[in-house]
Design goal:
A two-stranded antiparallel ribbon has the order 1-2. The chain has a domain of 43 residues. The chain has 88 residues and is of the alpha+beta class. Helix content is 40%, strand content 15%. The protein is flat and about 45 Å long. It is built from three helices and two strands; from the N terminus they run H-H-E-E-H. Strand 1 and strand 2 form a beta hairpin. The longest helix is centred in the middle third of the chain and has 14 residues.
Length: 88
């Protein structure tokens, strides 16, 4: 899948990673599922694993989950600000 993505988009940083273990996508009730997801995001820094500036003024963001806009905006904004003036 990664090879196919990179054929369409030449950015070699684009890749698909997955886990083979099964995870339920249908919580018993939507509210409990959302609450559990938001708790997981809080525990995992809104999905941001790492933000750094590499040699050559390259910005690198390692984001593992997509944050909820309401709860994650401040953290995502801070991560983006750290690489806002990088070249790539």
């Amino acid at each position: 899948m990664t090879a196919h993505l990179q054929e369409v988009c030449p950015d070699k940083h684009l890749r698909l990673l997955w886990q083979d273990e099964h995870r339920s996508t249908g919580p018993e009730d939507d509210d409990a599922g959302r609450a559990a997801f938001l708790a997981l995001l809080r525990e995992q820094n809104q999905g941001i694993r790492r933000v750094e500036q590499l040699d050559g003024n390259i910005g690198c963001r390692d984001i593992r989950r997509m944050a909820d806009a309401g709860e994650g905006a401040r953290v995502i904004g801070a991560a983006m600000e750290l690489v806002a003036h990088t070249r790539a």
